[in-house]
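Incident log, structure service

09:12 report received: a user says their structure output differs between two submissions of the same chain.
09:20 pulled the input from the user's history:
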Amino acid sequence: MKIGLRLVVPALMLVAASAAAVGQGFPLPGTVSLKTPHAFDALTARVEKAVAENKMGLVAQASASRGAAARGVKIPGNAVLMVFRNDYAVRMLAASVPAGIEAPIRIYVTENADGTATATYRRPSALFAPYRNAELDGMARELDPVFEKIVKDATGG
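09:34 re-ran on a clean worker, output below:
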């Protein structure tokens, strides 16, 4: 029974986090948002490390706050980390060229007013569901636990 609870409790936490994300203004289904005790820069570094440890690739990174800082403007920290891997890209495109717009999958790190940071992402199954493609759905089911683990490893959850 312990093994069952180990699987059920994290799943329930993610369902609660997804519901909370909708309440925070994230309009799309499958959005997971986890507030952490980590500062923005620390959480960003933790996500980068978790991406590598989970054998995914950090394809690109964009940060309005870093761009603003370069111009002497201070805004709360935010960074979009774009994550994917070429073998998934090849499979995705073989299944659906239009679905290519969904990759890389983004993990959004935001700084909170209290100095902590939040990690937000959309489950791959939610991203690819609108394409109604069995091959994409299968790939997304493989990617859901990968992204869940990346964010869990990064947030310490």
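09:41 both user submissions now match this output. Likely a transient worker issue. Closing.
09:42 reviewer note: The domain at 2-155 is CATH 3.30.310.70 (TATA-Binding Protein). The chain has one domain: 2-155.
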